[in-house]
Design goal:
The complex is a heterodimer of chains A (117) and B (112). By secondary structure, chain A is an all-beta fold. Chain A contains no helices and 11 strands. In chain B, the strands form 2 sheets. In chain B, strands 2, 4, 5, 9, 10 and 11 form a 6-stranded mixed sheet that branches. In chain B, strand 6 and strand 7 form a beta hairpin. The chains are: A mainly beta (117), B mainly beta (112).
């Protein structure tokens, strides 16, 4: 159980275009999902907390107008990278807990590798 | 703020034991997780500690000392497939959520 599905696995886009990444909890409901970004040989950096039915909470230094998050249902959160630039090329990973308790581990999607040319 | 430190790289021999240390400073501490991540893949959950002491799970054990802000992951009977990055992550309650903040990770290379 506790499967998180992320789509697409990889995407290549041209500079200036927008890319949408989907994150789904397949066998549980998630009122909260977390979006991380990981540059090569670096750790996961929390970008934002996605909340079902309300605005996302962004970490310091993350541009909310550039990284649009929508959490329209209990099983789906989307991250849209708007007006992408080469420096946005990274590995984006979503995650969620299947129980809303502090000791419940985060389950991660398989990630999306974004390359902006 | 939060600060999580762990060694960047370690090497070990197949069949041996390796200990990966992690020190942290955080507010609203809610527990410490260890994850394994192979290159290009998502992290997978290994262990969770919220109370002081040792948690054992097969070949993997994790230890926590809250007063010292210190944890370690112990891997026994190392196998080649254990070559991966090991991420120490601290859970803290912030802004109404239990957030998981990751350290930079320790890249472990297991050689024959």
């Amino acid at each position: 159980g506790a499967v998180v599905s992320q789509h697409p696995s990889w995407v290549i886009c041209k500079s200036g275009t927008s890319v949408k990444i989907e994150c789904r909890s397949l066998d549980f409901q998630a009122t909260t999902m977390f979006w991380y970004r990981q540059f090569p040989k670096q750790s996961l950096m929390l970008m934002a907390t996605s909340n079902e039915g309300s605005k996302a909470t962004y970490e310091q230094g993350v541009e909310k107008d550039k990284f649009l998050i929508n959490h329209a249902s209990l099983t789906l959160s989307t991250l849209t990278v708007t007006s992408a630039h080469p420096e946005d090329s990274s590995f984006y990973i979503c995650s969620a807990r299947d129980h809303d308790s502090r000791n419940s581990p985060l389950h991660f999607g398989n990630g999306t590798r974004l390359t902006v040319t | 703020g939060q600060n999580i430190d762990q060694p960047t790289e370690m090497t070990a021999t197949e069949g041996a034991i390796v200990q990966i240390n992690c020190t942290y400073q955080t507010s609203g501490f809610n527990g410490l997780f260890w994850y394994q991540q192979h290159a290009g893949e998502a992290p997978t959950f290994l262990s969770y500690n919220v109370l002081d002491g040792l948690e054992e799970k097969g070949r993997f054990s994790s230890f926590l000392s809250r007063s010292k802000g210190y944890s370690y992951l112990l891997l026994k009977e190392l196998q080649m497939k254990d070559s991966a990055s090991y991420l120490c992550a601290v859970s803290s309650f912030s802004g109404g959520y239990n957030k998981l903040i990751f350290g930079a990770g320790t890249r472990l290379a297991v050689h024959p």
